Amino acid sequence: MRVIAAMSGGVDSAAAAARAVEAGHDVTGIHLALSRNPASYRSGARGCCTIEDANDARRAADVIGIPFYVWDLSDRFHEDVVEDFMSEYASGRTPNPCLRCNEKIKFAAVLDRALALGFDAVATGHYAVLHDGPDGVELHRSADAAKDQSYVLGVLTQEQLRHSLFPLGDTPKPQVREEAARRGLLVADKPDSHDICFVADGDNAGWLREKLGDRMPNTEGAIVDEAGVEVGRHSGTTAFTIGQRRGLRLGQPAADGRPRFVLDIEPVSGTVTVGPREHLAVTHVSGVRPRWAGTAPTTLEGTVQLRAHGQEHRCRVAVHPAVEEAGHGRRETTVEIELLEPAYGIAPGQAAVLYDGTRVVGSATIAATRRVADAAR
């Protein structure tokens, strides 16, 4: 096959490109220029948007012996990922930009361009496994549970999976580094990227304040307890996420002396509500805008992962297809997820990725949650 290898400048994508060549594919390496001004995103080796990363990717391609090009997708990345990140936070939701990048950039814009140029597939360094199944290509968790990235790939459709390669999915990360060193790849010991690639220093709240400017909702507001009593002030709701404990700077402690967590964020009024951890317990999740890795289910008994590095939760799922409702217009497809054990710190805007065993069934964006505390009232 003719394969595009997306090379971020890290060890995983370089090793994946080398394996694709070793498997007999005709491989061309590409690096994505995602920043309109590389200095405005990250510097150093913490992300995947820097000049250093582009140079590392080019050197790796030279060692592997494949052609290498840089594709400028900075405008598309800014519109589909960065702007989405800002608008979601401004609306009081908690987005996952890595998942959005996979959906909109790596497996949409890149794959579309690759197919238009006559390539058959895109290879990346993601840790996930593809299997042929009775209904098409199946996406499964990787062999290395600590590095599994099937969650951020949960937005991929069957058509996209059919044109994807994940050469590292069956290999633990330490073995990938050893293999890269044997191949003479200088990125073998390069640290993994962390945080959000386009946030310069990992300070999400500061970055949002700077970038949103006049769009920043309620630069000041109240932090209240569940009775509505003000217990602190804040300088912007974008500094908070559901389930947050640190950095609240509350003016008075709870009556019982226990720590308090962010329970709700209301960006219009600027109100942040805090309370005990047990009041974060969620038993039901409603999802919208589902994307299925294969045939859409109507019901499912399986598991759901609700955060990129979160645990799996046993669940029952019901999918309600889009319908036309008289006098109410079109009701969009919803995914109702009943959790068999409570989950904590779940926020609208996050992704709910559904599994049947190790197989990814699909994903949905969390629109609402139902808590144990709400049901008890």
How would you describe this structure to a colleague?
- With 377 residues, the chain is α/β, with parallel strands linked by helices.
- It has 3 domains: 2-189, Rossmann fold (3-Layer(aba) Sandwich); 217-279, SH3 type barrels (Roll), CATH 2.30.30; 281-376, Elongation Factor Tu (Ef-tu), domain 3.
- Helix content is 24%, strand content 31%.
- The protein is built from 8 helices and 19 strands.
- The protein has helices at residues 11-22, 51-64, 74-90, 97-116, 158-161, 173-182, 204-212, 372-376, and strands at residues 2-6, 26-33, 68-72, 121-123, 128-133, 136-141, 164-165, 221-224, 230-234, 261-266, 271-275, 282-292, 299-305, 312-320, 323-325, 329-331, 334-343, 351-356, 359-371.
- A 6-stranded antiparallel barrel has the order 12-17-14-13-18-19.
- α1 (11-22) runs parallel beside α2 (51-64) and α3 packs antiparallel against α4.
- The relative contact order is 0.13.
- Residues 40-47 have low confidence and may be disordered.
- Residues 212-275 form the tRNA-specific 2-thiouridylase MnmA-like central domain.
- It is found in: Cytoplasm.
- It catalyses: S-sulfanyl-L-cysteinyl-[protein] + uridine(34) in tRNA + AH2 + ATP = 2-thiouridine(34) in tRNA + L-cysteinyl-[protein] + A + AMP + diphosphate + H(+).
